[in-house]
Amino acid sequence: MKALVIGGSGATGVPVLQGLLQRGHDVTMLHRGVHEPADLPDVPHIHADPHFAESITEAVGDQSFDVVLAMYGRVAAIAEVFAGRCGQLISIGGVPAYRGCLQPETVTPYGMALNAREDGPLADGTEPVPRFAKLIRSAERAVLDRAASGAFRGTVIRYPAIYGPRNLVPWEWSVMRRIRDGRTRMILPDNGLWIISRAAGRNAAEVVLGAVDNPDVANGQAYNAGDDDQYTVRQWAEAIAQIMGGELEFVGIPGELAGSALIELLPPTGRPHILLDTNKAKRELGYCEVISARDAMVEAVEWLEAHPVTSEDYPLYPARFDYPAEDRLIEAYTQAVGWVRDQAPDEAPDVRHPMPHPKTVSVGRDQDGR
Q1: Is the dihedral of CA 169, 175, 181, 186 positive or negative?
Q2: For residue 228, what is the domain's CATH number?
Q3: Can you tell me whether residue 51 is helix, strand or coil?
Q4: Which domain holds residue 137?
Q5: What is the C-alpha separation between 186 and 258, in angstroms, rounded?
Q6: Nearest alpha-carbon partner for 267 in 105, 103, 72
Q7: Would you call the peptide bond into 308 cis, given omega within 30 degrees of 0 as the criterion?
Q8: Which position among 199, 283, 285, 355 has the lowest Cβ density within 10 Å, counted as fewest Cβ atoms?
Q9: Does 360 fall in a domain?
Q10: Are the beta carbons of 200 and 293 closer than 8 angstroms?
Q11: 197, 247, 206: which is closest to 95 by C-alpha?
């Protein structure tokens, strides 16, 4: 089978390329050529800008493909070019497709549905629609509407936060850098109690490959990706520190006061919880994760230890690592908590178990009236 992977050099692209080759497919990748890691599988490259239909058309010429995987670029342009020129088109989207993922305060009930399923409320179902969510849903419709019209068999894969080798966002670095710098404490907005769905690059790739293997079943469908085991941000941060053999005191500060820490750990305007149900991919595509979340975290940490984050490789990485500013915030917040306790003390009442706990044999109420 002739396959074209658009993108292919990132955290999920490389394992997708490897999986296609292992299946015996004839694979070509199309990308800008900006990222050419040494461990890329040996496949032919087409260099073009996948954000523009004219660039794709010029580069591809009159070629057609059995399957096109749109892992990068503008999906609407890709779908336009390959309508009628491929048997299957699989596009990569994300959780902003779901209502309440972005700007959760604009929806009722607040935020995104927990364990969001593919048939759940979508971002463009009601107004207002966040700008980025509108773009995500428009890209999905470019694929699914053409699939419905018979232009190709089309599938959308919705990624959560991806992590692991070659990932565009080095999430683990926020913990790792502080340990490497000898810091003893780290701010976690809202005590790190959010749950953010994550998927190791290899696991997300396996969902994509499942759609390749089952084109008729996957036609016209969307599938969530995600690890089987999910963690709160605090559990995740503790795991990263443990993997590194370091110790950090995690200081909980309300998210509205800790904007810099917030942007290190969440996508812009995204707010927790962001938790996906992945049973549809298991049920319909036979998906089974290829690496546990814990082992994938070890792999991610080892990768970043060997490839430390630089401004050249990650020009938009937002972390400041301004430790004096962090210390000032921790000190100010600690003082503010003390002031509030002095001004408005609030002691929790004594609470007892609601079931009776009699101290003597009795068929009536116990000593506490239960």
Answers
A1: positive
A2: 3.40.50.720
A3: coil
A4: 2-337
A5: 11
A6: 103
A7: no
A8: 355
A9: no
A10: yes
A11: 197
pTM check: above 0.85: yes
10 Å CB burial of residue 10 (0-12, 13-18, 19+) is: buried
- Tokens linked to 99: 């209502």
Residue 38 domain flag = yes
Helix/strand/coil percent split, the chain, to 5: 40, 20, 45
Would you say residue 240 lies in a domain?
yes
CA 347 to chain centroid, in Å, comes to: 40
Helical (H) or strand (E) element with 349: none
**H/E element, 158:** strand 153-159
The total domain count for the chain is: 1
Q: How many angstroms separate the CA atoms of 319 and 340, rounded?
A: 30
Other C-beta atoms within 10 Å of 220: how many? 15
- Provide, rounded to the nearest whole percent, the portion of the chain with pLDDT above 90: 87
Choose among 245, 225, 358: nearest CA to 302.
Answer: 245
Burial of 344 (0-12, 13-18, 19+ CB in 10 A): exposed
Judging by DSSP bridges, how do beta strands 153-159 and 26-31 pair with one another? Answer: unpaired
pLDDT tens profile 332-351? 999 999 999 999 999 999 88
What proportion of the chain, given as a percentage, has pLDDT over 70?
A: 99
Q: Does residue 347 fall inside a structural domain?
A: no
Amino acid, single-letter form, for residue 183? R
Which helix (H) or strand (E) segment holds residue 137: the answer is helix 131-149
DSSP 63-78: --EEEEEE-SS-HHHH
Residue type present at position 229: D
pLDDT of residue 272: 82
Which residues are bridge partners to 270 per DSSP? Answer: 102
Edge to edge, the sheet with strand 45-47 lists 45-47, 26-31, 2-6, 65-70, 86-94, 153-159, 221-224
